[in-house]
Write a structure and sequence with these properties.
The protein has one domain. By secondary structure, it is of the alpha+beta class. The chain is built from 7 helices and 8 strands; from the N terminus they run ααβαββββαααββαβ.
Length: 265
């Protein structure tokens, strides 16, 4: 292939980078990344302001830290097993399918849910299409209460006293009810990722609990379902789960039910 020359017939000086455009020189890449980060941050700030204006709600600092790291951003179809590695990027968490920040800011309940409890702001859905919601008028020093609102049932479950403890419960429930010996290495990888990547929003003791669970060998434990005794094999028994929740979350309203949908008058 002939070598490129300029109008005088001399070989063009490609420099040390072999003709890469000056716009893409390594010295310019950090500044370009900074520009993009500032642009995305500006977009996020605008959406946070919109949420506060529409719902009278300031998003939890834990959510903001996670959003800044891209934990809620997914721009393509994917499966959970792609997200076992620690670091920035989408965070898969058991039964919470995240709404984007834009989707939260623009959220409107379908007319089927017109007769509902006020002051609910969804931030995720579960696999059944139920709504994970902040109950924005239920705030105290612990944070804003989280409800699980079924798409087809009038009673919602009081899931946690705040956003961080809702995430912690999801991790614990995975270790108890979803971890399975046939895929135990993958299950441990998820739990380790949560312990590391959620260290910004979890107390150190919660992270250590998750690390300890990830290092356990699976074991058999019994549970009762109706009149039957069932054998389960996982990293955490149901009895241990209850003890950990009582110790670490200590919320008297955990799993109580409140009405969130009402019949038309």
């Amino acid at each position: 292939m002939p070598r490129r020359t300029n109008s005088s017939g001399k070989i063009r000086n490609k420099g040390a980078l072999g003709g890469i455009s000056p716009r893409l020189q390594p010295t310019s890449i950090p500044s370009r990344i900074s520009e993009l980060l500032l642009r995305f941050q500006s977009m996020s700030d605008a959406l946070y302001r919109r949420i506060e204006e529409r719902f009278g709600f300031s998003m939890p600092p834990e959510y903001r830290r996670m959003e800044a790291r891209g934990f809620f951003s997914l721009d393509r179809p994917a499966v959970a097993w792609e997200f076992m590695t620690t670091g920035d990027g989408p965070l898969w968490l058991n039964d919470m399918e995240w709404l984007s920040l834009k989707e939260i800011a623009e959220f409107e309940f379908d007319e089927l849910y017109e007769q509902r409890l006020p002051h609910l702001l969804p931030f995720a859905l579960n696999a059944a299409g139920d709504f994970w919601c902040w109950q924005v008028d239920k705030r105290d020093v612990c944070g804003t209460r989280v409800l699980l609102c079924p798409h087809d049932y009038m009673l919602a479950k009081v899931y946690s006293p705040n956003f961080a403890s809702a995430l912690y419960r999801q991790a614990l429930w995975w270790a108890c009810y979803d971890a399975h010996p046939s895929r135990i290495d993958d299950d441990r990888a998820f739990i380790r990722r949560w312990a590391i990547d959620l260290a910004e929003v979890f107390p150190a003791s919660w992270c250590q609990t998750l690390v300890d669970l990830a290092n356990r060998a699976p074991f058999v434990w019994e549970s009762r379902w109706k009149a039957r005794i069932c054998e389960n094999e996982s990293l955490l028994s149901a009895d241990e789960l209850i003890k950990i929740e009582r110790r670490d979350i200590a919320f008297s309203e955990l799993d109580t039910e409140i009405q969130w949908l009402f019949e038309e008058s």
